[in-house]
Amino acid sequence: MTDSIESRKSLIVYVYSTKQVRQLKKYGLIHYVSQKMHYVVLYVNAENYEWIKDKLKSLRLVKKIEETPYEELSNEFANSDEFGDSEDDEEY
Fold first, then answer.
1. Which residues pair with 40 in a beta bridge?
2. Whole-model pTM over 0.85
3. What number is the average pLDDT over the span 25-43?
4. Please, which pLDDT band fits residue 41 given cuts at 50, 70 and 90?
5. How confident is the model at residue 81 (pLDDT cuts 50, 70, 90)?
6. Which of 49, 58, 63, 89 has the CA that lies 20 to 30 A from 16?
7. Residue-wise burial string across 37-75, b where 16 or more C-beta atoms lie within 10 A, e elsewhere
8. What DSSP line would sit under the chain, residue for residue?
């Protein structure tokens, strides 16, 4: 039995009211709901991403949709050599 992990993408969906957020459950996994700012962080499958995005835009409760820039961020971390010598810290 091999379970494969499906790749997902996240969307930030701005809504007019958070009362009807439960309707978004059929499109993906609701990760976070902001009652004050009226937005929902929604994880959707990557293979159906464009289709789901178009469907969400057509809903009356959705104000706007933003894509999260997670895939575009760099995963490389800086080396400790780039920060210079640690001799300066000894003075303090």
1. 13, 33
2. no
3. 95
4. very high
5. low
6. 49
7. eebbbbebeeeebeebbeebeeeebbeebeeeeeeeeee
8. --PPPPPEEEEEEEES-GGGGGGGGGTSEEEEEETTTTEEEEEEEGGGHHHHHHHHHTSTTEEEEEE--GGGS------GGGG--SGGGGG-
